[in-house]
Amino acid sequence: MGEALETSKLPRHVGIVMDGNGRWAKKRHLPRVIGHQAGMKALERIIDAAKEIGIRYLSVYAFSTENWRRPSSEVQGLMGLFRYYLKGKMEQMHRRNARVRFAGRMNVFPEDILKIVAEAEEKTKDNDGIDVIFCTNYGGRQEILDAVEKLLASGFNGTVTEELLRGGMYVPDVPDPDLLIRTGGELRMSNFWLWEGAYSEYYFSDAFWPDFSRAELESALLSYAGRERRFGTA
Ligand code: IPE
Ligand code: IPE
Ligand code: MG
Asked: Can you tell me whether residue 61 is helix, strand or coil?
């Protein structure tokens, strides 16, 4: 690593809004789905880099609850890639000692996808190199609603606490994201980690996701290392 990055100042959990695939493709006069394909390669690179650097939890926003609003051809293309990625890459993740997890309203996905998801989660559950959390059909508002629903469904009628609600989130044992990165130049979170990101540090990159490199990840980490987090204290 170029400039010294102290291990003690590394974020434990980095979340990434992988944005800019469509514009990356457009710039090259290619269909959007080619951009998503290139985005998958970038994801592999960044998972490897994050693990090498020593990031313990990496969450990636792959598909939002609002992304269904896209043309069905694009949605279908994304589902195809998701299936391909799941079928081809889960074994590789296991070999790399990565624990694979999914966060989102998963029940909308077809049976064959759910089966691979469940198998991958089960097979990798004891891996401790890095946790990679794929946020698929994820929405922060929906996650909070789902947590409330779970609480109500359990018959609970006491005082609702933060701890109780947190327990109903999709990956409650994963620490809150310390650093949230968004690529693609937009300055918003688009419904990512609303509850968990309450005190996250933000980092925005103009790079389109397929171009996002290890060097840019390191720039984000360096920026994070120089910040003072106060959590409301003086
Ligand atoms: C992010 O890239 C990937 C998904 C939302 C699935 P986009 O497809 O949003 O790319 P842009 O923002 O249109 O460039
Ligand atoms: C956010 O990107 C969702 C993902 C990267 C999966 P979008 O491209 O969907 O966000 P908006 O529409 O620009 O807010
Ligand atoms: Mg976008």
From this structure: strand
Of 5, 19, 42, 68, give the one whose Cα is nearest residue 180: 19
Which residue reads 């996002």 in tokens?
212
> Which of 21, 61, 137 has most ligand 1 atoms within 8 Å of its beta carbon, as the pocket-test mutant?
21
The number of the ligand nearest the C-alpha atom of 66 reads 2
Pocket around ligand 1 at a 6 A CB cut-off: 18-23, 63, 67, 78, 184
Cβ burial 67-87 (10 Å sphere, 16+ → b, else e): beeeeeeeeebbeebbeebbe
Q: What is the pLDDT of residues 153-171, one digit of tens each?
A: 999 999 999 999 999 999 9
Written as one letter, the residue type at 188 is: R
Read off the pLDDT of residues 67-126 as tens digits, 9 standing for 90 and up: 999 999 999 999 999 999 999 999 999 999 999 999 999 999 999 999 999 999 999 999
> Which domains does the chain carry?
9-139+177-223 (3.40.1180.10)
What distance in Å separates the CA atoms of residue 184 and residue 16, rounded to the nearest whole number?
11
